[in-house]
Amino acid sequence: MVNVRILSTSTVRAQSHQPNQPSPKVELTPWDLQFLLVGPIQKGLLFHKPKFSQDNACMIIRRLETSLSRTLDFFAPLAGRLATVELGSGNTSFYINCNNAGAFFVRAVADDVTMADVVEPVFVPDIVHSFFALNGSTNYEGISSPLLAVQVTELVDGFFIGCTISHAVADGTSFWHFFNSWSEICRGFLKPSKPPVLERWFPDGTDYPIGLISKMKPGKFTSPILKERVFHFTRQGIAELKAKANSEIGTNKISSLQALLSHIWRCVVRCQSPDSDQEVSFKLLIGVRPRLKPPLPEGYFGNAVQVGPLTMAAKELQELGHGHAAWKMNKTVAWHTEDKLCNFYKAWIKDPKLPTMNSVTTNALVTSSSPRFDVYGNDFGWGKPVAVRSGSGNKNDGKITVFAGVEEGSVDAEVCLLPETLERLGNDTEFMATVSVPDKLMPK
User: Taking the chain, what is the end-to-end CA distance rounded to the nearest angstrom?
Assistant: First the structure.
């Protein structure tokens, strides 16, 4: 069995931090606090090994550490820690103390593991989870643990750069904003092309800091045995799914992503074989930034997502067709207007609800990430990545992680299911007819 060996660990701090100045404080919003009791975001990129790296792996590590330190000058929350204030009556307020306690940096090596070993197997190899630091942690632990951890794992012919970021500090948009900015600075930029906006957004009339019950704990979560597989959908294939869904309903409002996700939902549920009258659900993470008036700034750094659930009977999902499921998904997204978002925000403050991994509903699919995120633009100075993978954080039976594919307009869906369900999905004729076999690992 191949193991990942840890060669060294270090703490990376912002380069220009002024230790004699008071530490900036960033309040957390309901969109941030709702993730306190679940796991961090874990995403990483696979790169070819630079030609100059054969005898200079240490040089690459130094370059990444130095550029990370400079990047943290702009992303101060990621070098900080969560902190609390007792409000009385058993309530506690959480905020980010930008004290430059530092990010965790790990250098590792996976002996005898090649890039092809990572991307070419049918199922995602278990070793991929070992390419990330802080496995098994919860965001709540950010009081004493780093809010950002980076692990650089050297393979025989490549490098994997895995990032773990507290989900109480950043959502997927902000995660990739940081990753993009770090790669820019590593290849010579003096500052990010899109500066982060660190000030949190609160609706007018909101009382904060927001108090939470002090004794809340995440509880112990025992994950079932799960397997993951990445399914590739071409631009043409997605366009055909979109046309089919819109045609069935007689509309043109169903988006490409809604058509794809509803197609995956129907096929997965068919492979799970629930009772016909059993309710099945799909939980969308809906981006809030453009839905507010005025919209949040482009560089807003934090969480700005809300869960949009939709539920149907298993029989209804199958018998009413792809278009019906896609249309229900479209209506769920459209329902999240500014008024609805602000009402949720204020209601949450009065009665906070913090989901845990144990609260994930049976027969529920949950989506994360977005094909809009700039994954393949991350060039640290020796070329763009050839693949993206995620860690073990927040994985459950039914987790669907969507990424942009390497080819423009394509999408990769990383599907996490019980092994027997995933096996059936891979043998489902209707589903696999829409899946494309991507090109082999791109040559260096």
Answer: 28
Q: What pTM was estimated for this model as a whole? A: 0.95
Q: What is the pLDDT of residue 45?
A: 98
Residues with Cβ within 8 Å of 213's Cβ and at least 6 positions away in sequence, in order, are 90, 91, 92, 352
Nearest CA to 33 out of 350, 402, 348, 277 is that of: 348
Which are the catalytic amino acids? 167, 379
Widest CA span of the chain, in angstroms? 66
Angle at 39 (CA atoms; ends 263, 143), nearest 5 degrees: 155
Q: Tell me: pLDDT of 32 over 60.
A: yes
Supply 212's token pair.
């939470």
For residue range 232-272, list pLDDT tens digits in order: 999 999 999 999 999 999 999 999 999 999 999 999 999 99
DSSP strand E in 182-263: where? 211-213, 227-233
Strands 387-390 and 41-48: antiparallel
Task: Please state, in angstroms and rounded to a whole number, the distance separating the CA atoms of residues 226 and 417.
Answer: 6
